């Protein structure tokens, strides 16, 4: 069904098409027509950070920033759903247009800028959902919060999402909030993660349950920077790592009319670099911290390649735009075959 709708959606402005697709999916779910959109994959239980995922294919943050469509998205067959990025206060994001398709490259450029209704709205939506599966909540900082005070924004969000989240992802790798990626610098990151980890343990005692904390990093990092990040993560005891966010590099789309647009590039062109970062971090962390692979998954074979590089689970976003919900089952099928070949 999605393949029939895609040509129409691709005739629209990318952001308007995004909103229409979500509202149409929500309507289909409420009318009980979700089976027309997707065939749910058979279970493939997978352990990750002490959580059992029904299958290891999840939705990456960014598609449902305000947790307004959790039930409808989960019904597509995802093993876990990550919502956000959310910030302490609502913010409109960057000026439009800010979302661009590059169909020839199966890619998207976005400079949305953490546009969201704020963490209180996200929590209200999440609490109203009927979803009882694995829910990740991705947190960030407001655009006008200086980096020296950034940790306060993350602490504020962590406090508010903790009770509803199955795990929390700390996003310091979006290229669309000025200076955000500077938080990945070694000494800054060490203090930053240590502060969040202290609050995490305090919340675990307060709520009587410990929720994993994950960090999401950029693909545009040198080997030296990756070495430093690995040391910080091992020293601070972070629970998991997501490799990677979007890239600011444009080599793979050079010459395209949209290549000069600022923002993060996702989809097929980021696959090689994000997978290389994933493999590099898997080697550095040597199994001590589990990994989620994301970036450029447009087929089941891509998901299998991420797991071969060291990921326990994967996430999709741009691939969903180009391939539709059938991508989920394709990924689970390939991962099941891989698990059967390597029990």
Question: Any key phrases for this structure?
Answer:
343 residues; alpha/beta; TIM Barrel; 11 helices
What percent of residues adopt helix (DSSP H or I)? 25-40%
CATH architecture: Alpha-Beta Barrel
Number of domains: 1
Number of DSSP-assigned strands: 13
Largest sheet: 8 strands, parallel, barrel
Instruction: Work out the radius of gyration.
Output: 19 Å
**CA-CA gap between termini:** 35 Å
Instruction: List unreliable stretches of 5+ residues.
Output: none
Q: What does this 3D model show about the protein?
A:
The chain has 343 residues and is of the alpha/beta class. It has one domain (2-337): Aldolase class I (TIM Barrel), CATH 3.20.20. Helix content is 39%, strand content 16%. The protein is built from eleven helices and 13 strands. It has helices at 2-9, 14-30, 70-74, 119-128, 150-161, 186-207, 223-236, 271-285, 300-308, 318-323, 326-341; strands at 46-48, 51-53, 57-59, 80-86, 99-102, 107-110, 134-139, 167-171, 213-217, 240-243, 264-267, 291-294, 313-316. The strands form three sheets. The protein has an eight-stranded parallel barrel with strand order 3-4-7-8-9-10-12-13, surrounded by four helices. A three-stranded antiparallel beta sheet has the order 5-6-11, with no helix packed on it. The chain has a two-stranded antiparallel ribbon with strand order 1-2. Strand 7, helix 5 (150-161) and strand 8 (167-171) form a beta-alpha-beta unit. Helix 7 packs across helix 8 (271-285). It is globular and about 50 Å long. The two termini are 35 Å apart.
């Amino acid at each position: 069904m999605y393949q029939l709708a895609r040509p129409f959606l691709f005739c629209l402005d990318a952001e308007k098409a995004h909103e229409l697709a979500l509202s149409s999916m929500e309507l289909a779910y409420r009318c009980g027509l979700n089976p027309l959109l997707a065939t749910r994959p058979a279970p493939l239980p997978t352990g990750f950070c002490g959580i059992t995922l029904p299958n290891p294919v999840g939705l990456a943050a960014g598609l449902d920033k305000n947790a307004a469509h959790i039930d409808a998205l989960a019904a597509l067959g995802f093993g876990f759903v990550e919502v956000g990025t959310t910030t302490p206060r609502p913010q409109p994001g960057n000026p439009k247009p800010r979302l661009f398709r590059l169909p020839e490259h199966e890619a998207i450029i976005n400079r949305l800028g953490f546009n969201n209704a704020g963490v209180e709205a996200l929590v209200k939506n999440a609490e109203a959902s009927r979803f009882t599966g694995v829910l990740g909540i991705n947190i960030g900082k407001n655009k006008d919060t200086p980096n020296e005070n950034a940790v306060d924004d993350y602490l504020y969000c962590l406090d508010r999402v903790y009770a509803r989240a199955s795990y929390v992802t700390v996003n310091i790798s979006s290229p669309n909030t000025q200076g955000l990626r500077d938080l990945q610098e070694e000494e800054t990151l060490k203090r930053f993660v240590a502060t969040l980890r202290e609050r995490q343990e305090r919340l675990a005692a307060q709520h009587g349950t410990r929720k994993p904390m994950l960090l999401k990093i950029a693909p545009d990092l040198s080997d030296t920077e990756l070495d430093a990040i690995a040391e910080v993560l091992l020293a601070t005891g972070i629970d998991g790592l997501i490799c990677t966010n979007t890239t600011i590099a444009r080599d793979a789309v050079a010459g395209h009319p949209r290549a000069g647009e600022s923002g993060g590039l996702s989809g097929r062109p980021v696959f090689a670099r994000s997978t290389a970062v994933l493999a590099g971090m898997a080697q550095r962390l040597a199994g001590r911290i589990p990994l989620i692979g994301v970036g450029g998954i447009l087929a089941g074979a891509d998901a299998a390649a991420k797991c071969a590089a060291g990921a326990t689970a994967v996430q999709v976003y741009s691939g969903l735009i180009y391939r539709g919900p059938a991508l989920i089952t394709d990924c689970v099928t390939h991962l099941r075959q891989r698990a059967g070949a390597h029990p």
